[in-house]
Design brief:
heterodimer; A: 376 residues; mainly alpha; ABC transporter involved in vitamin B12 uptake, BtuC; two-stranded antiparallel ribbon; 4 strands; disordered N terminus; B: 360 residues; alpha/beta; Rossmann fold; six-stranded parallel beta sheet; 12 strands; globular; TAT_signal (chain B); Peripla_BP_I (chain B); SBP_2_dom (chain B)
Chain lengths: 376, 360
């Protein structure tokens, strides 16, 4: 796995992708291994890939169980009340919902070989734009429309700069981070804009069958993301573009357009997240969603998404977000400081990446070494 | 996603583009109109100014012309925005004041550069709210050496030579005021061992530590202590997420102090989302939204302790007096004092009407 991705440059640095030639095979995922989700030319070597991501996700579930057990041991008084436990699970999922939606978009961008540092800024801009006095006069529909369209447009600008302007994704989205927050501050005049729309605010305060609406939205976005990544041509192309853009281009994929769409997709997720966050906070301001880009990238990475592209799962990213939310919850119920919580978060990120590297290097290298030995 | 077929006739593509383009232009026009924040009555609270009434106060009679240079960081928070707005509004009240504002830029270095330019223009007095008192100390000294009195707004310089007047709020006093209100309320309700929560602001700031220290010290007087403390980041969304977790940690609570009314919008939202009503909440700073909520009395928010941006208006009035060499008319001294610390006042339903015009 590592050997393969060393040659994979970020999508933005890819050589010019010419219009697909009519004689090239239809890009309907034909060269893609069934179930594996990665375009492989070797055999056997990739066959364990799906199993590997399953094992990894199982590991994350294990971490989650450990965190919950620590919670039970440290606060038995709270965990003995089943009503509280139900409430707490919903509270953790609600806490994870906004970052979770952003992370789904981020996962696509990273699998496609890019990075989007502007997600927090896009959430803030979309949130602020949708809560101006003028927008609020159009009602909930107008606010949702504004947030989504603004966020998708910003994502498209990101994608255009990266795909056609040949900017490195890191630079383009860093510039957008600064610019979008600036525009948000300009529009809001640096004030906190209170949302007076009962429908929007109700998104955060209403439940259906005891489950908060925000959790349903998260579930919907995750399900849609999973289907898009694993069951559509778009998803297979994403993996192909991120894994090896040159091979993807030769296979007839319009690499540039595809990368651009990935950033638009990330923008779409940010737009949905902006409405959710506005509903939660009953307001929007230019400084909101601060550092969400780092939360989303960290969650995707501990979820097993390869930072150089070509590999990743939506379920892993979701587990990553839930683990972070559970840590926050664990520290809150024990009355520990935010600083200690951030240190633990950092430690978990490093540990997760180390474990992944160790596993992969050792497995593939061990196999290769054993083969060498047995043939000699 | 749609399949891209390069063999598709060009005509079809152009029609699609036309439709998309039309929709994009329409949405663009609609969205541009949506950036307006004009609600016809002006935004948020009004400016906090003292009218120039020379019959009541001979000091406000027009006198020698004073050029006041002003520098404050770009506002990313309602309180800072109110500081700049108040300073401008108060300067307009006086016909003998010329107000020169320079942008403070993004950080201390940018503000230092802006201040050097300002000093070279030789205003009569400089009023500044530094990014950081320690880092801007040198700029204060430079101006004082050039013979320009410096008024430090809220963020103190370590060096006493760097300023003529320092006017600031009382962070420790805010904590004390909040602690006293909660202590008295608990005593009145006969709760001997209350469960008290605290949602602080940015923990890396000195002012947050002072506020929390004052709160803890005053609660200790009553024999109470904080059961759970979370630090948010002065924004509504972080206030909401920290409060939601604190409510999980304290399934039953008697009182809550939230350091900042801007983040309080989120804290109140979290409380509403969790359907909790069993405790009282005290805010901080004294925003217009918080005062309105206290008057309406339909939420857990029963009081807020002030840290008023009106200090910017007072700073401009005092800058004018210093420029004209006058003292404060109620005091015996012929010159303005060197240090003024505002008292943190407690706004409750009973006295809210007096403070309504001071909300920002």
């Amino acid at each position: 796995m590592t050997e393969r991705t060393e040659t994979a440059a970020p999508a933005g640095a890819a050589p010019p992708a010419d219009r697909p030639s009519p004689v090239s095979p239809a890009p309907a995922g034909a060269p893609v291994h069934k179930g594996a989700g990665t375009p492989g030319n070797g055999t056997g070597r990739w066959s364990g890939d799906a199993g590997e991501s399953f094992r990894r996700n199982l590991g994350l579930v294990g971490v989650l169980v450990v965190l919950i057990v620590i919670g039970i041991v440290t606060r038995p008084d709270l965990y003995s009340d089943m009503n509280w436990v139900g409430d707490n699970i919903m509270s953790i999922l609600t806490l994870a919902s906004v970052v979770g939606v952003v992370t789904v978009g981020m996962t696509f961008v990273i699998i496609g070989g890019g990075i989007d540092l502007s997600v927090g800024a896009i959430v803030a801009l979309a949130g602020v734009w949708s809560t101006t006095v003028a927008t609020q006069s159009y009602g909930a529909g107008g606010m949702i429309f504004t947030a989504v369209v603004v966020a998708v447009c910003v994502g498209l600008v990101n994608g255009f700069l990266i795909s056609y302007g040949r900017l490195v994704p890191f630079i383009a989205t860093l510039a957008m981070l600064v610019a979008a927050r600036g525009l948000a501050a300009e529009i809001s005049d640096k004030q906190t804009q209170v949302s007076n729309n009962a429908t929007i605010n109700g998104i955060a305060s209403n439940d259906v069958l005891g489950i908060p609406v925000l959790v349903f939205i998260l579930a919907g976005v995750v399900a849609a993301g999973w289907v898009l990544l694993n069951r559509t041509t778009f998803g297979r192309r994403t993996v192909a573009v991120g894994g090896n853009p040159e091979a993807a281009r030769l296979a007839g994929i319009n690499v540039r357009r595809h990368s651009m769409l990935l950033y638009a997709l990330s923008g779409l997720c940010c737009g949905i997240a902006a409405i959710m966050l506005t509903a939660q906070a009953n307001s929007a301001q230019a400084a909101m969603a601060n550092l969400y880009e780092l939360d989303a990238i960290a969650a995707a990475i501990i979820g097993g998404t390869l930072l150089s592209g070509g590999r990743g799962t939506i379920v892993g990213s979701l587990l990553g977000v839930i683990i972070f939310a559970t840590i926050t919850n664990l520290f809150a119920i024990n009355g520990l400081s935010t600083e200690a919580q951030n240190m633990v978060k950092g430690g978990i990120i490093v540990a997760a990446v180390l474990v992944q590297q160790f596993r992969f290097k050792s497995l593939t290298q061990l196999l290769a070494r054993n083969k060498l030995r047995s043939t000699n | 996603m749609t399949q891209h077929d390069p063999l598709r006739p060009v005509r079809d593509l152009s029609r699609r583009r036309l439709l998309l383009g039309g929709a994009a232009v329409g949405a663009g026009a609609l969205l541009t109109a949506c950036t307006s924040n004009d609600n016809g009555s002006g935004d948020g609270g009004g400016e906090q100014v003292k009218a120039a009434d020379s019959s009541a106060n001979p000091n406000s009679a027009p006198g020698q012309k004073v050029v006041i240079g002003f520098s404050a960081p770009a506002a990313d928070h309602g309180w800072l925005a109110a500081i700049t707005k108040n300073a401008e509004a108060q300067a307009k009240v006086f016909s003998d004041v010329e107000f020169k504002t320079v942008a403070a830029g993004a950080d201390a270095a940018a503000q230092r550069a802006a201040l050097s330019t300002l000093i070279s223009q030789k205003p009569n007095v400089i009023v500044m709210l530094p990014h950081d008192g320690k880092e801007l100390n040198a700029s204060g000294l430079e101006a004082m050496k050039a013979g320009i009195p410096v008024i430090n707004l809220d963020r103190a310089f370590p060096d006493a030579l760097a300023y003529r007047l320092q006017i600031k709020g009382d962070n420790y006093g805010m904590g004390v005021a909040a602690g006293r209100y909660i202590g008295e309320q608990m005593k009145a309700k006969g709760i001997t061992n209350p469960i008290i929560g605290e949602i602080a602001g940015m923990d890396e700031l000195e002012l947050t530590k002072e506020r929390s220290a004052g709160f803890a010290a005053e609660l200790a007087v009553f024999g109470f202590k904080v059961a759970n403390r979370r630090a948010a980041r002065f924004t509504a969304d972080t206030g909401q997420s920290e409060a939601s977790q604190q409510l999980q940690a304290l399934p039953k609570m008697d009182a809550l102090w939230n350091h900042d009314d801007d983040q309080g919008i989120g804290v109140l939202a979290a409380i509403k989302q969790a359907n909790r009503t069993e405790f009282i909440m005290v805010g901080g700073a004294g925003s217009k939204a918080a005062i309105d909520a206290i008057v309406a009395d339909n939420s857990v928010l029963k009081a807020t302790v002030t840290y008023s941006p009106s200090m910017a208006s007072s700073a401009i009035s005092l800058a004018r007096l210093i420029g004209q060499g006058k003292g404060m008319s109620d005091l015996v001294e012929l010159q303005v004092p060197k240090e003024i610390t505002l008292a943190s006042e407690t706004i409750t339903k009973e006295n809210a009407s007096q403070y309504a015009k001071l909300g920002f």
